[in-house]
Amino acid sequence: MSQFQNPGRRQVLKAGALLAAAAGLPRIVFAQDQRLVVSDPGGPYTEAYRRAFYTPFEQATGIKVISVARESQPVAQFSAMVQTRNYVWDVTTLTISADIPFLEEKGFLEPIGLKAEDYPELLPEAITPNWLGVDVYSTVLAYRTDTFAPGKGPQSWRDFWDVEKFPGRRCLRRNPLDTLEQALMADGVAIDDLYPLDVERAFKSLDRIKRHVDIWWTSGAQAMQAIQSGEVDMISTWNGRAQAAIDNGAPVEIAWNQGLYSIEGWAIPKGTPRADLAKQFVRFCADAQRQAELTKTLAYGPTNRKAFDSIPAERARLLPTEPGNLQHMRLPSPQWWAENRAAVTERFNAWILS
């Protein structure tokens, strides 16, 4: 190695700390170290998180938050960062049903030490030792009120499957998550009795509706456009996308009955050098006022129930965790999906093409 080679940044930091200690000076803090790279789904999420979490955290701590858009399915990237120790970001949003069980099993989550008893106002499903849920979205049934009178459209998945009583163009998600549960509820399974999923029964139910489905959507934007434009009359979609269509003037109504909610929140890739800063940020986002602020931009529910003290009643009625809405919905089993997702996804994809 050449003696004139530029020293690495880590060497400079170490040398600075040693010199400061030798001289009896305070340890040098480099401004560029006081930053945190946070990834989120982008688009309206970035705007909402910036307003509710990023800027207030910067103001409270002096730690700069740099936001980047993550991949739509972040688990593979998250896993690769931990395995290669090449950290593109320090904290990201993940969902409890689809992501956390797998990453916990692999040991890829940075220990945060969160305890449910320290956050009594949070939904109990919104906290694990290494993950904090901050917002809730739901997969719901929505329909056009220019096709069906308000309150007279399909109100359950059995109604959605009933093509004679509720004729119209239909749209479902091209993904087994939520769709298998909906198929079982359409076949008469109670929402509290879904797990373990009867996969054979679910696919038999899907066989009955398949030829009546006009669109199988693959992105939230596609789903919103389909119901907003009138391309379909009823849809299984995320409540935030249905609400966006309503906000844009579309004659759409949400039926919360038999909704399947998911919790989205923050986790830290194990080993990131800025883990301590990331843990500060995660804990900061549990705050009720911060979560209430989030709901002004996104129609997703807070996990901190005290946030509703600061949310106007008119807005609260549009959110999944409003008690009147939440009582009709359930959380898909994270454990069941962690164990079965690969197999049922392969089968579902083959079924779609058959």
From TrEMBL:
Pfam families: SBP_bac_8 (PF13416). The keyword Nucleus does not apply. The keyword Signal applies. Residues 1-31 form the signal peptide. Its main location: periplasm. Coiled coil: none annotated. InterPro entries: SBP, TAT_signal. This is ABC transporter substrate-binding protein.
